[in-house]
Amino acid sequence: MILPIVAYGAEILRSKGKEITPDYPNLNKLIEDMWETMYASNGVGLAAPQINKDIRLFVMDSKQVFENQDDDEKGKYPDEPGIKQVFINAQVTALNGQEWAYNEGCLSIPRIREDVMRNETVTISYVDEHFTSYEKTFNGITARIILHEYDHIEGKLFIDYLKPLKRKLLRGKLDDISKGKVRADYKMIFPK
């Protein structure tokens, strides 16, 4: 089932997600719905707060980025061909490498894209949908998507990384999103 995406301005996007256990109600269905919602919205990642759930869960698929890139982009990133993964109760344990800029967007902040600086490499501990524990290091585009989605379960948004002047210039567009004056190609829930 395709779920509506929570728009910028909603309180849940600023709250830290709670850890869950394997007996979380209808977890498999929720994950299935998150994948369906993410793909239907043309996203590469989706975190539970974006579908109005205050839990530490996100899904991401960096394979799509590589499948859809131009020929001149092939081989540019070290994580090619990417991964498709569920992350539950994730905790970043290390950030390494140089910071690099990449143009990011967010399903909860439609029609706004900005260059964001993030580390090249992230080490993260998490459990998958079977509650198998991992601690892995990711780099490139995959690391960037993981960090973007991880921020959602920490109550952060990609616009938090922008310089104050840039955020000030975006204030009108952000206010329009929170007031429901911006439309996306997918169903959204706007703050009251």
From TrEMBL:
Q: Which UniProt keywords apply?
A: Hydrolase, Iron, Metal-binding, Protein biosynthesis
| Class of this enzyme | hydrolase
Annotated GO biological processes are: translation
Which reaction is recorded as catalysed by this protein? N-terminal N-formyl-L-methionyl-[peptide] + H2O = N-terminal L-methionyl-[peptide] + formate
- Protein name (database record): Peptide deformylase
Where along the chain is the active site annotated? E149
Q: Cofactor(s) for this protein?
A: Fe(2+)
Source organism superkingdom: Bacteria
Positions of Fe cation binding: C106, H148, H152
Similarity remark: Belongs to the polypeptide deformylase family.
* Pfam families (alphabetical): Pep_deformylase (PF01327)
Q: Which SUPFAM superfamilies match?
A: Peptide deformylase (SSF56420)
A Gene Ontology molecular function term for this protein is: peptide deformylase activity
Functionally, this protein is described as follows: Removes the formyl group from the N-terminal Met of newly synthesized proteins. Requires at least a dipeptide for an efficient rate of reaction. N-terminal L-methionine is a prerequisite for activity but the enzyme has broad specificity at other positions.
Q: How is the cofactor bound?
A: Binds 1 Fe(2+) ion.
Q: Its Enzyme Commission number?
A: 3.5.1.88
Q: Does the keyword Protein biosynthesis apply?
A: yes
